[in-house]
Design brief:
4-stranded mixed sheet, 39% helix, 8 helices, globular, alpha/beta, single chain
Length: 280
Amino acid sequence: MREIKAEEITRLIREMCITANKILPNDLCGEIEKGYEQETDELPKNIMKTICDNLTCANELDIPICQDTGMAVIFAEIGQDVHIVGGGFEDAVNEGVRQGYTDGLLRKSVVGDPLKRVNTNDNTPAVIHTRITDGDKIKFTVAPKGFGSENMSKIKMFTPSATVDDIVNFVVDVVKTAGGNPCPPMVLGIGIGGDFEKCAYLSKKALCRSVSVRNPDPFYAELEEKMLKAVNETNVGPQGFGGKTTALAVNIEKSATHIAGLPVSVNVGCHVTRHIMKIL
């Protein structure tokens, strides 16, 4: 049994919240640059150039890449041979979020009650997903999620009679309805299977996969490419002003489901779909 102090968890989450909001994954930056290169019309090309310039400026000035520094979403894969000492796990995670958003001068956007709407003033509580795995380590993924894109996400409970084309058309309809609201070009996380809540979880988890990595199942890897092509043919374009680059990537995660169901979830990410992974 390996002991991990709660304060170590807090320290790591603090650093990850700050870093994730300031530094975009290299592979996503590369896709944004490709988007700029492939645009031929003046307006979308200028918009993509501005997006590239924004990333450069954020890095040089050491400031967040987006003013909406998001709701902190934490995925934690906890080894069964880990014993956390010196405090509770969720308390340690939330303290890390509190410190990260306060010390990092990040915008605090969380209200403690969805109807009373009073800001907690420290961006807690975080959304925490935990899973018990083998080993004696904890794998953390921190994904700050802005709500301009989150608000455009949808889930649909298809029946098994739905075809692959029906699912692709649903994804395309979500993108068309979203338009410029989620600050395209987007990254789309697609969850297929499970039940209602597992499907939504899968789509959020899909956004944390590298955009340069395709689904390991060739069937779903091909479906990712098919969806991406269909979405980029909508002409929504950068920031909704038309163009070839509506989405940068489509990532699919799937799970077993009931014989009577076929849930599909689309979690929309903006062009700064932020995530960072560390192992403690």
